[in-house]
Amino acid sequence: MISELIIILAFFTLVALLSPVKISMNSARAGEEINGFFSFGWIIFLLRYKLKDKEAEILVFGRRVVRLPNKEKSPEFKELKKSRPIKKSKKTPHLGDIFSLLRPMLRLFKDLIYSFKLKYLDIDIKFGLEDPAYTGILAGFLHSITGIMHKGHTIRWSVDFSKPVLEWNLKAEAAITPIQIVLPVARFLTNRQVIRSGLGIATHSR
Description:
This protein is of the alpha+beta class.
C-alpha cells in the first residue's frame, strides 16, 4: 500500500515538473493610464493579475475560484507605520560573505533566464527622454536588437525628441518547464561558496 502511494506521488510529481508554465502578458499605456493583465497558467490552474484594477484571481478549469481584490492601506495605518520606531539591528552580515554570493547568484539568474522560451512578442512603443541625446542612444540600441529578433517577435517604436514620454502596447507569451528550474537551483544551493557564505551570514546575524 505504501509503495503504491509512493509510486502515485512520484508520478504526479513528475507530471507537475514536466508540465510547462505558460506566461502571458497584455499591457498598454496611454498617458498615465496602464491597462491589461499578466497571467500564469499551469496544468488546470490559471493566476491572472489585472493591472488597472490591481487585483488577482485564480481560475481552475477556466472558472474563478479565488478573487484577491486590491486592498489599499488606510491613512491611519500608513501614519501608524511611519510613527512606529525603527529597530536597528546591532549586527550586520559580513560584506565578504555577501560579495562571495554575487557570482553564484549571477550564474543562477543567467540559467533561469535561459530556461524561459519566448514564444511570441509584439510591442509597439513610443518614448522620449529629457535629453534628446539619450533618446537617440536608446533608439540606436532598439535598432540593433531588432536585427537579431526571431521570427514571430516584433518591436516597433516611434521617438519623441521634444519631451519625456513613454507609451506602449505589448503582447507577449513565454513558457518554462518547472524541471528546468530544478537543476540550476540545486546547483546554486549545493555550491560550496554559497553554503560557506550562507553559514557566515547566519553566524554574523545572530
